[in-house]
Every structure is written in C-alpha cells, then in structure tokens.
Design goal:
It contains eleven helices and twelve strands. The protein has helices spanning 50-58, 85-91, 103-106, 113-124, 129-142, 159-171, 189-206, 217-223, 241-246, 251-258, 298-302; strands at 6-19, 22-35, 39-43, 66-75, 78-79, 96-99, 177-181, 209-214, 226-231, 234-240, 307-311, 314-317. Strand 9 and strand 10 form a beta hairpin. 38% of the residues are buried.
C-alpha cells in the first residue's frame, strides 16, 4: 500500500497501564495501516489489546492509568497523538467514529434517540434545529427504523434496533473511518446478520473505511479485505483475507482455524490451543506465544521473533515464517507443550 493510499497508519505504538499492582503491557510495538475504503478485521482473544488499540486511535483512554509510551498514529498524514483535546473533539464523530461493544450502555437512557443523534450532528455541523431533526430522521430511515421514532427512548427499542441507532449516530456526520468494537456480540444470530449487512451497505454508500474488532472468523470472512491477528499486545500475522484464510503461517493463526468446526471434515473433535494467554503484567520472554506453541524451541524462549514479509503484504512474526523463495528462519522441534 502506497503512502497516498493509507488513510490510517500506526507506527511502533506502545501503550501501558500503570497500576498499583504493576505495569500492564497492553500494546507493544504495534504497526498497522488501513487504506481508504478498506475493511480491516482485528482478531484476537479477550485481553489481546484490540480495544486498547482503537481507543488510543480515538484518544479516549483514561489517563491515568493508561500511558502512551511511544509511537505515532497518522490519520490522513497527521499524527493524532500530537493533537490537542480540542482538535480531537473536532475529529471524533466527524472524521473517525466508533461503535462500542454494548449498545445497551452506549445510549443515554434519559434522552430520546432523536436528541442523541441530533447532538452528534450539532457538534460538527452548523445547522438549524429543524435541519438537524430532518437529518436525524434520514439517518434512522437509513438504518431501517421509521423516522417518527425519533421521540422514543432507548428502552423502547430491542437490542438489534439499539445497535442500529448507535450505527446511525456513528455515521451521522459521514466519517471517513468507522471503528466497530464487536458490534454484534450481544445480538442473536439473525439480528447479527442484519446488522452486518447494514454495515456493509452503509460502508459502500458512504465510502467509509472500517476497522472491525471481533473474535468471530466467520464475520471476518464475510466483510473484511485485510486481517490482523493480535496476540498479547502484538500483531503476529497480517495480510489480505486470502493470505490469512488460505496461507496462514503463524502457529497461533493456525490454532484459531483448528478451533472452528468443519462441516466437510470427518474429524469429530476440535483441536483447541493449549493453555491461556499470558498475563499482560507478567509477559514471557522471547516469543509471547512460545508457552502454548507446539513448535517452540530454545530460541523462541529467549529472543523475540522479527516480523517477516513472507509474500507481498503478508507479514508473520515467527521464526518459522518462510519468505517467498526463501528459507525458514529456524527448524521446528515439534516439542509438545
């Protein structure tokens, strides 16, 4: 991806939480980019650092305990980490919007949905109250809710409709980047499909780039162009949808796929990844996955592996990554965990 095509670029981002019990190394040396009009899936277990990453982009992490130790976050060529709070308020909602994980807690229960959508519009557009009402009605209609429900309160909507209201608020000012933090977690399967279809349609309609945080590889396969696999605060594999789903190389990525039931396989048991993700306040030395990896050998326990470009745009953080027309970085011992 050329520099001109990058809408968002994160370079060497490190974020810690300083607590009385010690330092939580939530994100370390993270590099990531999103192109204009692209959808990036950010995948990983709970506690991998996904939400910390996107909240750092939005600059909404509580300070303290969070500390941005190093890094740069370029949005349209400008470093968001150097922006003042006043400048960030003009960016949030207008240029970068976020759909939070739980729609039940994202809406103010004592304000009508119309007032909340109008507030988002009024913060970034100089329009009359009448015009703001018209725009709010249009946004509700866009997400499949009748415009005359502007005066209803959040408790009068189902979970799926609340999520649609949250999406309407996020897109009210036509942002260039939309961040969705597991937007379908609290919804049943039928409503999940409707919300995902809606997000895809609106993404095309508004030409918006999207970062989708999820642990559901089915969702990734359906809507993402690129995928970043995150483990213990680091991106361990990054590439196109085809790279990750057809040519995965990192043992963790392969482990995630082995946990998915296959309708066409005769195997009766899934193969889980052994162990648990390490405590971010007490991370292991060397490769952070070596305590759970069946290919781990002495070098993995001591030295952190580099990120290897195994094919154009496909990066893997593993000693056994095989570059195109190259040799493996090490020889696996196949030692059981």
């Amino acid at each position: 991806m050329s520099q001109q095509e990058k809408l968002l670029e994160i370079k060497n981002l490190t974020v810690h939480y300083e607590t009385v019990d010690g330092t939580v190394r939530a994100v370390e040396n993270l590099n990531l980019s999103v192109g204009a009009g692209q959808t990036l899936g950010l995948v990983g277990e709970t506690g991998a650092g996904k939400t910390t990453t996107v909240k750092t982009i939005m600059r909404i992490l509580p300070v303290p305990p969070s500390v941005i130790k190093s890094g740069e976050i370029f949005f349209k060529g400008e470093d968001l980490l150097k922006k003042t709070e006043k400048e960030m308020r003009s960016i949030r909602g207008a240029k970068i919007s976020m759909i939070f994980q739980d729609p039940m807690t994202s809406l103010n229960p004592v304000l009508t949905v119309g007032e909340q959508i109008m507030e988002a519009i009024g913060l970034h557009n100089r329009v009359s109250k009448r015009k703001a009402i018209e725009l709010a009605e249009e946004m509700l209609e866009t997400v499949g809710i009748k415009g005359d429900r502007l005066s209803d309160y959040p408790h009068q909507f189902s979970g799926g409709m609340k999520q649609r209201v949250v999406i309407a608020m996020a897109l009210a000012c036509n942002p260039q980047l939309l961040i969705a933090d597991e937007p379908t977690t609290a919804l049943d399967v039928t409503i999940q499909a409707q919300v995902l279809e809606l997000m895809q349609r609106l993404k095309r309609q508004y030409k918006t780039s999207l970062i989708m945080i999820t642990h559901d590889l089915g969702i990734v396969a359906e809507i993402c162009d690129y995928v970043a696999i995150m483990y213990a605060g680091q991106i361990v594999e990054y590439g196109s949808l085809e790279d990750i789903f057809l040519h995965a190389q990192h043992p963790y990525t392969k482990g995630l796929f082995s946990c998915i039931p296959d309708l066409y396989s005769d195997d009766k048991e899934l193969i889980p990844i052994p162990g648990l993700m390490p405590d971010p306040s007490n991370l292991p030395s060397g490769c952070r996955f070596h305590t759970r990896c069946q290919y781990s050998f002495d070098r993995c326990e001591i030295q952190e592996p580099p990120s290897v470009e195994v094919s154009p745009g496909h990066h893997v953080k593993c000693f056994f990554a095989v570059p195109e027309k190259g040799e493996p970085q090490g020889t696996p011992l196949g030692r059981p965990v």
